[in-house]
Amino acid sequence: MNIPASNYPRIVIVGGGFGGLQLARTLKGKRFQLLMLDQNNYHTFQPLLYQVATAGLEPDSIAYPLRKIFNRQSNLIFRMAEVQKVNTDKKIIFTNIGELEYDYLVIATGSTTNFFGKEDVAKHAMPMKSVSEALNLRSLMLQNFEKALLVDTQKEQEALMSFAIVGAGPTGVELAGALAELKKHVLPSDYPDLDIRRMSIHLIDMAEEVLPPMSDKASAKAFEYLEEMGVTLWMGQSVESYDGETIQFKKAKPLASKTLIWAAGVKGNLVEGISEAAVLRGRYKVNAYNALEGIKDVYAIGDVAWQTNTDFPNGLPMVAQVAIQQGKNLGINIKAKAQQKTQKEFKYKDLGSMATIGRNKAVADLGKLKLHGLFAWFVWMFIHLIALVGFRNKVITFFNWSYNYLNFDRGVRLIIRKFEKT
Amino acid sequence: MNIPASNYPRIVIVGGGFGGLQLARTLKGKRFQLLMLDQNNYHTFQPLLYQVATAGLEPDSIAYPLRKIFNRQSNLIFRMAEVQKVNTDKKIIFTNIGELEYDYLVIATGSTTNFFGKEDVAKHAMPMKSVSEALNLRSLMLQNFEKALLVDTQKEQEALMSFAIVGAGPTGVELAGALAELKKHVLPSDYPDLDIRRMSIHLIDMAEEVLPPMSDKASAKAFEYLEEMGVTLWMGQSVESYDGETIQFKKAKPLASKTLIWAAGVKGNLVEGISEAAVLRGRYKVNAYNALEGIKDVYAIGDVAWQTNTDFPNGLPMVAQVAIQQGKNLGINIKAKAQQKTQKEFKYKDLGSMATIGRNKAVADLGKLKLHGLFAWFVWMFIHLIALVGFRNKVITFFNWSYNYLNFDRGVRLIIRKFEKT
Questions:
Q1: Hey, are the CB atoms on A392 and B413 less than 8 Å from each other?
Q2: Is the dihedral of CA A264, A269, A273, A275 positive or negative?
Q3: For residue B242, what are the β-bridge partners?
Q4: How far apart are CA B136 and CA B418, in angstroms?
């Protein structure tokens, strides 16, 4: 790989997500050569992917060019590349654009959809972890309505207009809510010759409540909102198989649905060449300094890292806040180490969690404060707006949200690339 | 095709471009059953496609959902479909979603890139007539810069950073100008480890001047602007062949360039089954009422129609204004015919033409008024903004332009889908 020589230690950061970004920013202006690798040339604000899928936002609202983020950080070099393998003995990383030695390696590769070994589901269900996948889902959904106009029987129409979501975490809940809003406000006028009452939205989870990690109050309120909005809730249910046409459940009658969206689980994006001994539950086991024990100078942060504390004995949650805080702490520790100062153990500060279900309907747990309804919804929007990278993206998103709110509309129901089911 | 029965005559409009849209609007509320067919579910504002290609705008700024345009027009039915064939004797249209009888057929299919039979160029050059093609071009351009970082020789770098555009009409000129702006304002800070001076932009045309249909003053001024901005002008030159690596000219030395953008010509999107006798220079010859002579109840409007008047003995120009005015006139005539009133011959009113080359640099011929510079640039922006369909798209575009202008930036340099050369 053509990387300029440097007198400073080289830190290779794999991944430009929340963790990688924060780490790189923390090391701005410091005496390191940072090399960031990502397979995309942009950072994705994943919490809003579901709005791209449901035609509320275009990709440019939630994606931000990585080169732009770092164009005033002279100690960082970016390369669009896919990592193929690592040799941790020789400290070399192999990519599709060549190999390179590192002094420190930080794995910030995030997570990918976990189908838990269900091959039929993996083949037929729609994941939603990247901008491309969200756009595929948008195209498929709109194409299904176009197709529903062409079929002869009510049964076929209902299968095309049935959207089943597995996983009642924030992604599943927000997606179900957004689909319910489309059904109520947008689709009837778009498809005057289609009986939109035949559209159905199903949210499926093994747990007995939605948003299981949130407070009981938030879960109950979200459940109530979803029912109000006409979402069919399949709690305590798990999917046995899916052939692209019919969902078979372990304990319920089958459901005919042409679209199954899988938001039921994620697993770390592992890198080949890292010892299997370091992997725990599909993530890299790290110590309190985010280092992989027994492997020299390799760190993991964010979703791909498995770290515990007394509150989270089964690993910290795979959310943006953990990645951001770990990225920052690791940056501080790398600086401290270079100056022979003491390193700081990572302490996760839970800033709370929230989910929006629909218009004026959100739930938020902010420490002891439990909010719901209109106020929670404003808090949700405000926090997501300020968290978006870049002034331009904040304004575009704010305008789209205001427009959609005032007009009961979703502006971008465009099928730019048709989705072809394989 | 599942189309509800109707007591009114059925007008099938093939294509939701400028012409089809205007025709449908003109017949709003009238006693016809309108069926609009388009292979996309959106209308494309083609004059700004080049800004999607050069990372100035996202597709949602220039594309607008057709269903939304017509969701308050109860006499129009939309179907996303590709027309395969027409039987003008039996008055049946065949599509990928079934067949249908028509009373009147209006072909408003627009135009497609014309490679003039050059198969090697068709294979290796990039067209830019649709949103997908513009996004492909954006991806290819950005990918080329990422690749330029990886090659070893200056020669290879220069070939990757060379962008050749064939055709110095408005599209070619505006594209060349936009690339020159990227080179000047955006790419140097995005690629600090790349010598952006090695990037070159070439504009090639057989004619001796740019923007040949415009006034001599406009052509000369545009030429001057392009030279100022560092575009290499190959006037009076034509491309002999292109293998994806090197452009061979008829009368000049070859040019190594990995990207050749073909904006040199268009031809009508013809429909199978219409008699070859009706085709003239790749378009449908129509009379002053936009009817195909000798074929009952078939009309053509816009780029696909070949119509002459004393000012344009070789056919009216293939521009939006002609399509819009013909769509309106045809709508009025169809109404008149139904009421047994006299039909009106089409009279083209030339509202002028304009092109923007760069920041504060545009040319405009508005009747006797010939403008250039900052004022022409404002007029260009204003006219394009008001012509965009929908309030939302106007605001988003206006914000993007203001942001790009104030920040010397292009917000959306995202490679959402990689472009793979075949």
A1: no
A2: negative
A3: B247
A4: 8
Residues of A in contact with B190 (CB under 8 A): 65, 67-68, 71
- How far apart CA A109 and CA A21 sit, in angstroms, is 11
Q: Would you place residue B410 in the very low, low, confident or very high pLDDT band (cuts 50, 70, 90)?
A: confident
The CA distance from B307 to B283, in Å, is 9
Number of domains into which chain B is organized: 2
Mean pLDDT of A223-231: 97
- Chain B residues touching A135 at Cβ < 8 A: 416
Question: For chain A, how big is the Rg over CA atoms in Å?
Answer: 22
ipTM of the complex: 0.93
**What is the pairing mode between strands A83-87 and A92-95?**
antiparallel
User: Residue A302 sits in a domain of what CATH number?
Assistant: 3.50.50.60
Q: What interhelical angle do A391-407 and B391-407 show, nearest 10?
A: 170
- Tell whether B365 is covered by a domain: no
3-state secondary structure of A371: strand
Nearest to B150 among A60, A97, A395 (CB): A97
Average pLDDT value over all residues in chain A: 95
B60 → closest Cβ in A131, A190, A411: A411
User: How far apart are alpha carbons A281 and B74 in whole angstroms?
Assistant: 56
Instruction: Output the six-digit token pair for A22.
Output: 């924060």
Tell me the pLDDT band of A410, cut-offs 50, 70 and 90.
confident
| Cα B161 to Cα B146: distance, rounded to the nearest angstrom | 10
CB atoms within 10 A of CB B312: 13
User: Can you give the CATH number for the domain in which A203 is found?
Assistant: 3.50.50.100
Looking at the structure, tell me whether residues A295 and A249 fall in a common domain: no
Residue of A nearest to B411 (CA): A392
Residue B293, domain extent: 10-113+267-338
Alpha carbon dihedral B37, B43, B47, B52, in 10-degree steps, equals: -120
**Residue B55 burial (CB count, 10 A):** 23
Which of B246, B264, B282 is a domain's end point?
B264
What is the rounded distance in angstroms from the CA atom of residue B385 to the CA atom of residue B57?
13
A103 belongs to a structural domain: yes
Radius of gyration of chain B (CA): 22
Which of B149, B182, B402, B410 to probe by mutation at the A interface, max A CB count within 10 Å? Answer: B149
Q: Give the integer Cα–Cα distance in Å for B160 and B256.
A: 9
Cβ contact A399–B399 (<8 Å): yes
The whole-number pLDDT of residue B68 equals: 95
Strand B10-14 to strand B33-38: parallel, antiparallel, or no bridges (unpaired)?
parallel
Among partner residues B1, B146, B189, which is closest to A80 by beta-carbon distance?
B146
Least Cα distance to B41 among A415, A100, A190, A151 occurs for A415
Residue B420 pLDDT: 83
